[in-house]
Amino acid sequence: MIDLSKLRTAKDWVQKLANGINPLTSEPVKENDVVNNVHISRCLFFVCEMLEKVEMSESAPQKSKAFWMSAKEAEQIVLSAPCGIAQFARKVNEFTTMDMKPLSAAMVIKWLRNNGYLYEANIDDKHKTNLPTEKGIQLGITVTVQQNSEGQDFRKVLYNISAQRFMLSNIEAIALSR
For the segment 128-150, what is each residue's pLDDT rounded down to a tens digit? Predict the structure, then answer.
């Protein structure tokens, strides 16, 4: 565990240095001081930003419990339209507690792959995607071709309400498959 008091002091001092202020006296440093070098100053601002991120992550409540949801709890979730796997996971996570790690899209995809509903396909030498198997298509997993903001086509896998219900009915198995 990081001492947050020391971290905050370090961040404040680095920030003062980045702004050309002596942290010990709160007076401006001399014009020819090394901290006034633009490269050094930028580096100090970067370090300050990183210390801010560490402070935020250390002071945020830690999610200690692994994701879990019973099938009965999953029945409370209202399904409305076909969606991608990330949207499905977000919908499920609306019903979890703050001290619990969220359900990840990767967790669901892994379970769907292990149970024969998805397979990993190569798009090109560098990229892969998950596509439905025949079993997945029968379940209600479909692929549409959409365009990104740059006008390039990409495949989006959608899960209809039937597929989402199936995943919810197997939420305990998905949670245990970590």
Answer: 899 999 999 999 999 999 888 88
Domain limits, the chain: 4-59, 71-176
d(CA 94, CA 77): 9
Residue labelled with tokens 């209809």: 160
**pLDDT confidence tier of residue 92, bands split at 50, 70 and 90:** very high
Mean pLDDT (whole number) for 9-24: 89
CA 64 to chain centre: 16
Residues 144, 40: Cα–Cα separation, whole Å = 50
Q: What are phi and psi of 124, to 5 degrees?
A: -155, -165
pLDDT for res 80: 84
In contact, 137 and 122? CB cutoff 8 Å: no
- Asked if 132 and 141 count as a contact pair (C-beta separation under 8 A), the reply is yes
Read off the tokens for 13.
């001092």
Provide φ and ψ at 93, rounded to 5°. Answer: -65, -20
Long-range CB contacts for residues 25-28, cutoff 8 Å, separation at least 24: none
